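Residues determine shape. Take a concrete instance:
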Amino acid sequence: MRRSPGPFAHAPFRWLVAARMTSLLGNGIAPIALAFAVLDLTGSATDLGLVLASRSVATVVLLLVGGVIADRLPRQLVLAGSSVLAALSQAAVATLVLTGTATIPLLAVLSVVNGATGAVIFPASSALTPDTVPAPLLQRANVVLRLGNNGAMILGAAAGGVLVAAVGPGWGLVVDAAGFLLAAGFASRVRVDARDREPGTSVLTDLRDGWREFSRRRWVWIVVAQFSVVNAAFIGATTVLGPLVADRSFGRTAWGVVVAAESVGLVLGGLLTLAWRPRRMLAVGVACTLVSAAPALALGLQPPFVVVAAAGLLAGMAIEIFAVAWDMSLQQHIPSDRLARVYAYDALGSLIAVPVGEAVVGPLAESVGLAATLAGCAIAIAAATLGALASRSVRGLVRVS
């Protein structure tokens, strides 16, 4: 019996995978490299949180504009242009770190620039996927794309720990810049049919239409509200406090392994979803989010790093199962010509509290202690997830096919 062709039979999808994998290979290294660059500079968790929060604030502020741009212009060209700007900003950060001229204000400003590119890259790349394959292949395409992305993140995270320990954080940032530049070339090769849209509409009209699509579906804004809390707590615990715990206990190279373990979990979760078709996919995905509290709990207890890595592995699996369920839910229930804007509202709501989490966990840890702060992050994740599951609209959403 002949097997039907998969998503890789379609050239636009192949180029999209190549673009995302190359940029994410560098991005797997960048958070580790930037975190330890700041810690080498000042040793302050508060400074690290402020630099990371600068990027998140810029992303959050500009996400809606990014969604409008991605629905108005050819998404592949939007993705390519944004990747070039991201490459330039990361190259500037690398130069400052390698030449010893980096300061916290300079790193924060360049983080703002990089965050602005992320505000466009995310809605453009997320909404582009359904344009690259026929509808029956959409779930497989989402899973394959995420598997490739997560594989790149695994390699990047592992390389990040080794590079930082061996030659310093600056070279990790060089690799990130190169990845974005190569990704821009791949994105420019994506060829998809032009989308129909109403001519002459204003940006405000586009934003109102996107908001209407977002707000009239109860399950959408409830899950986004859940992840406003989950992302702030998870990122604050793992991205800001995780490197601090590593510096005080099992070391930087081992932290790279911990981050890589989470990415391995993402791959395993993706593999599980290849043949996974529960009727109430969103409810299962949201329930899995409870497991993402495990890394914060483990870091607070400060066991051997293999235990922390195991917690990261399980969290990665849970996050990926949710992510596939969420992408399929949005792509099946939101009109294609408004999908990037809904993704932008989704990302805005999901990330709006992340800068607060990044900026607050450092001072909290210094005032009430690392263990108490990390336990609070885990409790916040669990409470927000149980609140979302209490909604019938979340539990009752049924997949289209």
